[in-house]
Amino acid sequence: MAGVGSGYDLSTTTFSPEGRVYQVEYAVKAVEQSGTVIGVRCVDGVVLAVENLRSTKLLQPNSLRRVFAVDRHIGIAIAGIGPDGRQMVSRARSEAQNFRNVYAEEIPPSLLAERLASYAHVYSLYWHVRPFGCAILIGGWDETSGPCLYIVEPDGSGYKYRAYANGKGRTAVRTALNKLNFDQLTCADAVSEIALMIHQSRDIAKDKPYELEMAWISEVCDRQFARVPMSLISSARQRAELEHQQMEGDASPGADAAEAAGTNVMEES
Amino acid sequence: MSRGNSAGYDRHITIFSPEGRLYQVEYAFKAVKLPGTTAVAVRGAQCVCAVVQRKLPDRLVEPDSVTSAARVSDAHGVVFAGLPTDGRAQVQRLRAEASEFRYQNGYEAPTLTRFIRSTLTCVPLGATLLFLGWDDHEGGYSGPRLYKVDPAGYCIGYRACAAGSKDVEAQNWLEKRLRERQEEVGADRGERLLFSTAGSAGGYGAPLRDIPLSDDDALELAIGALQSVTSSELKPADLEIALVTKDKRHFHVLSDQEVEEVLSRLSERD
Question: Domain Proteasome alpha-type subunits spans what residues (chain B) (predicted)?
Answer without folding.
Answer: 9-31
